Amino acid sequence: MEQIVDPSELQSLGEYDFEKNFNDREAREWMRENWHKSLYLAAAYVILIFGIQHFMKGLRAYSLRPSLTLWSLSLALLSAAGACRLWKLMIFILSTKGFKQSVCSQSFYIHPISKLWTYIFLLSKVLELGDTVFIVLRKKKLIFLHWYHHTTTLLVTWYAYNDMMAGGGWLGVLNYSVHAIMYSYYAMRAAGFQLSRLIAITITLIQMLQMLTYAVINIFVVYWKEDKVCHTTWTMLFLSFIMITSLLVLFCNYFFKTYLRNTPKSKGE
Questions:
Q1: Residues near 81 by Cβ (< 8 Å), separated by ≥ 6?
Q2: Which residues are known catalytic residues?
Q3: Using one digit for the tens of pLDDT, what is the confidence trace for 180-235?
């Protein structure tokens, strides 16, 4: 079973010149040599946000509504664009090659329609750290789930990319899709629109469903790994298992405390 879809089969999908011209080999080489820098980024992020939070104790909260609206809207549009491009390839593979190939294929890392958006997905994990800066500057409640989610996602996605691990296509397409919805919601809230609480509940449920889907895909990867169909490592499987399980537990706990108990609504993801 091939792990790479023949490029000639994808011509009808209509890739753009800027997508075709992206040098994925150079990007992977850079990531292979520098993925460990995500550890430094994560450490700097945690130090920075708690440093700002401590500094803000004696200051009035900033409003930042226009900046937050623009920030969230930009990330929503970026996520929507990435979701559209990756879904185009995902649907093609599912309809022509089947689910197994959609999980195991490394095509998402190298083919013109997706290679740029897969790399942008990694870089977006750095951009999204800016969400927390807005929270601490506005003196909103910073929950553990929020900064833990950002940190672990950055570390695992950067580590997975440099060796083109199985399951990357589903990770990118689902996360892009969820974030397109989530950041659109954040943008509307920041712009002053009064939205139904049901929307926030639905978004959290979607995030929980996303983690469950990742868990199921991981199980398939473990099963198919023995047939040498899905390229991965036990280290990657261990890291993804820890991340997925912990995030699912944290999201469930957040959902229970925020929506099922009569407690004040927490701010954050």
A1: 117
A2: 149
A3: 999 999 999 999 999 999 999 999 999 999 999 999 999 999 999 887 789 999 99
